[in-house]
Here is the input.
Amino acid sequence: MKIKKILVSQPRPTAEKSPYFDLEEKFGVQVVFRPFIKVVGLSSKEFRQTKVPITEHTAVIFTARTAVDHYFRLCKELRFNVPDTMKYFCQSEIIANYLQRYIIYRKRKIFFSPTGHIEDLAPFINKHSKENFLYPTSDVHDSKQASVEQFNIKCTTAVMYRTVNNDFGPDEVFDYDVIAFFTPAGIKSLLDNFPNFEQGDIAIGGMGNKTIDEIKREGLRLDITTSPDAPSMAAAIGKYVEAHLNDPEKPRRTLLPIAAIRKAQQEEEERKAREEAERVAQEKAERIAQEAKQMAEEAKRIAAEAKKKAAARKAAATRKHKAEEAAHKAAEDAAAAKRSEAARKAAATRRRKAEEAAARKAAEEAAAAKRSEAARKAAATRRRKAEEARKAAEAAQKPAAKIATKKK
Here is the structure.
């Protein structure tokens, strides 16, 4: 099959010279540059939901220029002024120089691997191992992540952008003889856009072990890849095209435009949707019938339980009434007992008061008798003393009379 049209799943080179342009001049082929995937950055709202504290980090590890763009974009959207003290560790010198778009280049805070391998950043990272590192990356697993984890540092992985399919337009015709892939995501995008894709005579090229593994995993045929004598994809394609220059020209197989594919997909989806709707409706009817039966059984059970509860309530009410009557009678008995006890206490009080009054009266009478006896004794004593005084006076008078008689 003669090669006329080649699809390279990468952006068109910005430089005027490219080995792909040389292919066009050398072999008269048409090279179309069309990425199968594209990078979309997370919005500031989406990034906040990841709960990564971007302001708490003092150093950043960059493995791609895309990561640089989205890091500074999110910092701006989040109104975080990146401090001048921030340190940057880059996988290559190209990425380090790319930082000049956003900051002033200073060697004391920008470090890069001299070989372009992230492992060779180790001396610089180990020297600043006390920093709090941030690693901006994509949502797609990156083999560099394992390399970052090998460093014995405090590092937070922050997803700042995602890789999505770059869908074909509704009228875009797919009539390529060669397709060159560079990422596994490109293979997935092709099959997402063309679910019924059949390779046939289309030559597929793959670069990188993961891309080649994905091509084989999807059951596709790998026709072109790099080799020691063709180290780049452009060289490998050129080698393949040159080997097929003298092939007889065959009618080119053109895949249906994406609009037709999507229309067929839509019709198939509508058919499946109808079948699914019928199945769901039938299941719903059966479910409703089953639920109705269950509801009837539940209603019957609830009625039986309600009847039991009513009987229980009636028995409880009867017990409550009897208990209330017993409590009322007990209260009356208690009140009567209380009244009897009060009367008993009152009688006892009266007896005690009478006894106390009698005791007081007896004590008073005893005191009066005691006072009367004392008065009687005092009067007798006075009488006795008076009598003694009288006798003494009489006795004294007798000698005086004798003396007076003698004097006469």
Notes: Residues 37-155 form a domain with the Rossmann fold fold (CATH 3.40.50.10090). The chain has ten helices and ten strands. The mean pLDDT is 87.
